[in-house]
Design goal:
The protein is α+β, with helices and mostly antiparallel strands and about 140 residues long. The protein folds into two domains: about 40 residues; about 100 residues, GMP Synthetase, Chain A, domain 3, CATH 3.30.300.20. The protein is about 35% helix and about 30% strand. The termini are far apart. It comes from Lutibacter oricola.
């Protein structure tokens, strides 16, 4: 299977990425000539990581009948000092909200996403040390 997008320049540092499923704007910060009208490319990478894992987990929790009221995924990443700057350390926090958690099933769902299903997570592991944690908020 092949994925394809098309990136169109919209002036200055603003671009529109068009995929079969939808469009997203990409821009730089104002201090480097952008207008701040879109996500930064590296933030898009972290968004892709969280989105990929989140989709896995929501699907798995439904199948396991271990639904939660809500969950959020926070991704924090450190950039290298030298150019080209890339993420060398990435920490993913899975934050679950609700009560009477089925912790064994939630932890299994997260582990399956992290170790087996999330292709974006696997891509990140090729260039960064990835760590994860789970937090329950009742």
């Amino acid at each position: 299977m092949t994925n394809k997008i098309e990136l169109s320049w919209k002036g200055q540092m603003l671009f529109e990425s068009v995929a079969p499923e939808g469009n997203v704007m990409i821009d730089a910060a104002e201090e480097v000539g952008g207008q701040g009208k879109g996500l930064r490319p590296k933030a898009m990478m972290l968004t892709s990581l969280a989105g990929c894992s989140g989709m896995d987990i929501s699907s798995l929790l439904k199948k396991m009948r271990a639904e939660v009221e809500d969950f959020k995924i926070e991704v924090e990443a450190s950039l290298t000092e030298e150019h080209p700057k890339y993420y060398d350390k990435v920490h993913v926090t899975y934050r679950f909200f609700g009560s009477d958690f089925k912790k064994d099933k939630i932890e299994k769902a997260v582990k399956l996403s992290v170790d087996r299903y999330c292709g974006v997570m696997e891509m990140f592991r090729q260039f960064a040390t990835v760590t994860t944690e789970i937090i329950y908020e009742e």
